[in-house]
TrEMBL record:
<dbReference type="Pfam" id="PF01494">
    <property type="entry name" value="FAD_binding_3"/>
</dbReference>
<protein>
    <submittedName>
        <fullName>Pyridine nucleotide-disulfide oxidoreductase</fullName>
    </submittedName>
</protein>
<keyword id="KW-0732">Signal</keyword>
<feature type="region of interest" description="Disordered">
    <location>
        <begin position="155"/>
        <end position="174"/>
    </location>
</feature>
<dbReference type="InterPro" id="IPR036188">
    <property type="entry name" value="FAD/NAD-bd_sf"/>
</dbReference>
<feature type="domain" description="FAD-binding">
    <location>
        <begin position="5"/>
        <end position="356"/>
    </location>
</feature>
<dbReference type="GO" id="GO:0071949">
    <property type="term" value="F:FAD binding"/>
</dbReference>
<dbReference type="InterPro" id="IPR002938">
    <property type="entry name" value="FAD-bd"/>
</dbReference>
<feature type="signal peptide">
    <location>
        <begin position="1"/>
        <end position="24"/>
    </location>
</feature>
Length: 475
């Protein structure tokens, strides 16, 4: 009998999960409630997609492994994405001072719009998978089939025939059986509700919310911008005030994506004049001075989909066979820390590994529970990185600093301070931030020595810009 896998969600996590299953299932069906674009365009179901996203080296490596032969990296670069290094191509003001730009490049990152990334991955998976991957837009999943012991498929509303895009005004309700269901439906996942309907209750959830608001605008990069660095003024969680930050991300088509962010009480405005003023009033006016001479291409876009939310599904005592939850459906992180996409990719890679190891198809006994437990280290690392800073903002809801937070934060700040002037400390941060190494790398003997010695070079007096970059600044 043909083996079928169903994936809920055609975003990044969903398409990577489809790629992971394509070698083990005879048929992979991806269901998504949106009307999906035919090219690199934004879609309604991803409101945070208009804001800055960075693909870290660990996430990119996982994608390349999941879609072999498709050359995701080459496709993105050919479409105009920027490959930049954490060591050389970052201009960052941290709460502990300016990071240096080292001759050692360090791990690479890819910078592009989320629309381009999602489209490239979706096209690569559909065209390169060893079995047919069918993507059905306008199909809204409404529940799971089966029982508490095993999920056997999904119930969904198919709005394609009714022309309603899956919103329930037309079309019909259907069922689709599957050996394995993967929920990758994102921040709005209803998986806890679906599980409760099957008799699986008591799922622990946690939300930590700084009230962060993102405001983003696209600009045409000025003539002479060339290989422009990621430019960032970070928020300072440790001063007892709401956080304010700003970032310039070079993206495809000769554009800059400029994202400003403020936690509860310091939200950035949506008007053009206020946007520039907010950028100028950051801890350093660098971002504002750059964009003051750049041509705006869009209005300011606002998003509030920024809270940290986690479902501790790995703690469910008897996890049902046939169901895996990945990506933002499992855990979402404050996007300021840039690890969500990479965590999703690493989870999909683990799914592929476990399916191969099982050998007898995606419905293998115990496979779903192993995957659900196996993704925990990566989720834990990203969660601690995000929440460990977010708890310090004065109006954060859902958590306050604990004695353990104070201990970890003290070390983290000393490590960051050392990284402003010591290559060993900087390299450790690069590897962990890129998800190329686990957090234990930050406590390796060489890193501990760098932290103990502190920065070996004097602090940077200002932003470490090249002469060409400095010439782009407004007075």
């Amino acid at each position: 009998m043909p083996r079928r896998a169903v994936v809920i969600g055609a975003g990044l996590a969903g398409m990577l999960a489809a790629a992971a299953l394509a070698g083990a299932a005879d048929e992979v069906v991806v269901l998504d409630g949106d009307a999906l674009p035919d090219g690199p365009e934004h879609r309604k179901g991803l409101p945070q997609g208009r804001h800055a996203h960075i693909l870290m080296a660990g996430g990119l490596a996982a994608m390349e492994e999941l879609v072999p032969g498709a050359g995701v990296r080459k496709r993105l670069l050919a479409a105009g994405a920027h490959e930049l290094s954490l060591g050389r191509d970052m201009v960052v003001l941290t709460p502990e001072g300016w990071f240096r730009r080292w001759r050692d490049e360090g791990p690479a990152l890819l910078a592009c719009t989320r629309a381009l990334l999602d489209w490239t991955v979706r096209d690569a998976v559909v065209t390169q998978a060893p079995v047919r991957v069918e993507v059905r837009p306008g199909t809204r999943v409404t529940g799971l089939l089966g029982g508490a012991g095993r999920v056997t498929g999904v119930r969904f509303h198919d709005g394609r025939e009714g022309g309603d895009g899956g919103n329930g005004d037309g079309g019909e309700d259907r069922e689709l059986t599957a050996d394995l269901v993967v929920d990758a439906s994102g921040r709005g996942s209803r998986v806890t509700h679906w599980l409760a309907a099957l008799g699986v209750t008591g799922v622990r959830e946690r939300t930590v919310d700084t009230g962060l608001v993102n405001a983003t605008r696209l600009y045409r990069a000025p003539e002479g911008a060339g290989r422009f660095p990621v430019t960032m003024v970070q928020a300072d969680p440790y001063v007892g005030r709401p956080g304010r930050s700003g970032m310039i991300l070079p993206v495809e088509d000769g554009r800059w994506m400029v994202s400003l962010a403020g936690t509860r009480g310091a939200e950035p405005p949506a008007d053009a004049d206020g946007f520039l003023r907010y950028a100028m009033e950051l801890a350093d006016p660098l971002v504002g001075r750059f964009i003051a001479r750049a041509e705006p291409l869009t209005d300011v876009r606002i998003s509030r989909s920024t809270h940290n939310h986690r479902r501790y599904l790995e703690k469910v005592r008897d996890w049902p066979e046939g169901l895996v939850v990945l990506g933002d459906a499992l855990a979402t992180f404050n996007p300021a820390y840039g690890q969500g996409m990479s965590v999703a990719a690493l989870g999909a890679r683990l799914l592929a590994q476990e399916v191969r190891r099982a050998g007898d198809g995606p419905g293998s006994a115990g496979l779903a529970a192993r995957v659900q437990r196996g993704v925990v280290p990566w989720v834990d690392a990203a969660w601690r990185a995000a929440v460990g800073q977010d708890v310090w903002y004065p109006q954060t809801r859902g958590a306050r600093p604990t004695p353990a937070d104070r201990l970890v934060t003290g070390y983290s700040r000393r490590l960051t301070r050392a990284a402003t002037g010591a290559h060993g400390a900087a390299a450790a941060l690069w590897e962990v931030t890129s998800l190329l190494a686990p957090p234990a790398r930050l406590f390796a003997p060489g890193t501990l020595l760098s932290v103990a010695l502190g920065p070996l070079l004097p602090p940077q007096a200002g932003a470490p810009l090249t002469a060409a970059e400095r010439s782009l600044l407004a007075p």
